[in-house]
Amino acid sequence: LRDPVTTAAKLAGAPPPLGAGGPPPCRLPVCALRWAPGVVVDTTPLIGSLRSEGMYGLFHQLQTGARAPEQVELTVCCSDGHWFCAREDEASRFAALLLY
What we know:
Structural class: alpha+beta
Low-confidence stretches: none
Distance between the termini: 21 Å
């Protein structure tokens, strides 16, 4: 993310004032994200992880083309130039994107 013209680099350098809807969305390469400290992912194949919004269900949708990676949104934050997946409840989506 050292390319200064990308939206992510601009947001990390000098975030704009927040509007009513929060910051504008931007695209980041999934491999540029890090796990938030203390977040764990349960990879046990239980019913919840096999459903459409579970880790394996989402991974299946990505593999079959039913869903594009660009359609998966994550809440991220930037700290000291590193981007983190910010919400623990989105860890399964982040894991599915990494598996893909």
